[in-house]
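Hey, I was hoping to borrow your eyes for a little while. No rush at all, and the record is pasted right below.
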Amino acid sequence: MADRQSSLFDTAPDPWELDSAEEKLVAEIVFAETPHGPYDYSVPTSMAGKLRPGQRVQVSFGQQREPRTGYCTAVGVKELRRPLKPIKALVDVEPLLADGMLKLTRWMADHYLCPWGQVLQGVIPSGVRGQAGTREMTFLAVAKEVLPLVKALAPLAEKLALEGADKSTKKVSLSPEIELPPKQFIALQVLANSPRPLTAPELCRAARCTMNPVNELRRKRLIEGTVQRIQNTEIDEVPAARESHLHLQPDQEKALDSILQPLKERRHETILLYGITGSGKTEVYIRAIDEVIGYGRQAIVLVPEISLTPQTRERFRSRFEQVAVLHSHLSDSERHWHWQRIARGEVQVVVGARSAVFAPTPHLGLIVIDEEHDPSFKQGETPRYHARDVALARAKQESVPLVLGSATPALETWQRGLTEEFRLVEMPRRVSDRPLPIVDIVDLRHEFRERVSTGAIGRQLTQGMKEALAAGGQVILLLNRRGYSTNIQCPACGFVVRCPHCDLPLTHHREEEKLRCHYCDFLDTPPTNCPECRFDGIRYSGFGTEKLEAELRAKFRDVPLLRMDSDTMQKPGSHEAALAKFRAGEVKILLGTQMIAKGLDFPNVTLVGVINADTALHFTDFRAAERTFQLVTQVAGRTGRGDKLGRVLVQTFSPDHIAITSAARHDYRQFAFFELPARKDFQYPPYATLVRLIFRGEREQLVQQYAELAAGRLREALGKTLPGKASLEHRILGPAPCPFAKLRGKFRFHLLATSPDGAALRQEFKQVLDALTPSDEVQWVVDVDPLDLL
């Protein structure tokens, strides 16, 4: 955890020390690397007025020879009783973060129990930190002390220019001490009359001279040079064809009015827009953003990364002139270019994945999060923030509305809507009153008992696909497993082929003929017999998308199909190219993982098939049912979006599970009604704050001992903080091995802490973790409000 030091402005000297104190300009500096600080450094006189919070600086630290880069978080006068090390250099000319964003990152550091320096490092893109796409250039200007003399001789310069400086040999006197040849004098005049500083080549062209006169003027110190970083990246964005606003349905009008009310009053309100798939939520966002732009303000729209399709991008670009789209395939220089345009206020709408919540909009008017339930909004590494919660904090801070849209809201969000902490607005009908697709549940237990199918596609789904294709429709198939075979096991001795670094089953990828670990990318050769007992009948079982593709090509030989998963979509632009083919009708069957489950709007899709709805249903995670319900509902919403009626077939071994039956009825309320009481009974979110602490190291026993030590201290601290509470009010589960007990060569233990008082829980965690003795052999990570418990 962060090293602690007295705040820059909180500590007053003792009365008897005032006589020896001296007032100095001091900066508070934090670091992304340990030790994190904050630390105080004196500000040299040359930097006074130039150094501001949000800039990076270089400082000496301890006995390190090389200077260290840190972030300035405060500057002010402080009474010192001992000398401080001075700041060596400024890294940034302008602050990378404005005051409001500094305040937001401070909140993140406190809420997510993360050092402030790590938060700052995490929210500023690497391309911005590295000033990608820029180069240093020297700009020339006439020295201030001679500028009046040069301008006073402007008529003489005009005369020399007309006569030709090459023909004159008479020197021009600026003062008794300064005489210049005609070429140098004309170059000096050109620079004095320029509305801005010029580079040396620009000055040579304007004065029609070589570099020699310019160099001589610099040597004589009549010209001064300043070094600036200039953006040399330009992105030619082809403007989309302009489209007019669509006609709004009554539900859309009602939703829009709920957003415009706080928008016009310039106050914060969080609106939960619960709209079924196809209800027209995006058009509501667009109309609200149009109002924001009319006020001269900017909007941020967050969507899941997999929803950043060309279809989404073009929809916004066709309605607004200046749109920045931030996604993972941008280069560092492109991201820096967009960041600078946003910061200058040149961008009206920022559309991006979770990190776009930090876009440096100077005139923010609205934040929208589409598919707010999507787990990709949670960051998987430090700082482990959730974009929804950060957006809420930023919207409150800047007094702007926050719109959360989803057909399957996260239960934490839904509960806040029920208690009226958020304003719940419902859109229960599809645009033009199109019917929701018919969903049929296929009980795979019957097909297994009757052995009517040996593949992943059951008899009923096969027949449904034939009918849809014969009628000219398209088909989407969802299977959230990559590879060909997902399990390799010996039937003789029971041995399972596992990753040596992660202790998880390896997946067979037939195209590359390799076994692959999807967590550490370990590769191995597929065995022909059992590595343990040498039995030659080792069994490859389980279905992934690669095996599903092979089965489809055998059953539908003449039907063009396409697979979309992280194995086939690795090249830049491959995702866009695949969807373009499907949209154009060149592809009739689209199969893939969850990347095809949302963000797609293809009117000709008449059938969606869920190959195995149980893939994540029985994970050891209290959110497993919620995720299954959301995935099935979302993928079901990809059909019936045009004039043709849609149909969904859900294959499952758990046909009576509430997540499956509720999704089949498109009944979110029923699912929430059954799920929320169980959450309350076990004191899980949304009824309590959850904090997960993960320990990992190469020695299993040592990791377990360290985890038990931390758990004991936390139990003691929580017992003192919340005396007399009921046993479920605050509790610690574990430590125990993680469900994935070994990853990337390290053994893992975790503990979970829950409490209805989130602030008190975080405070005790902070104090206990600060007091933990660091270990070279055991690493630990704290995850506040975790989504992944594996």
About this structure: The CA atoms of residues 77 and 193 lie 41 Å apart. The chain is about 30% helix and 20% strand. Residues 700-721 form the longest helix (22 residues).
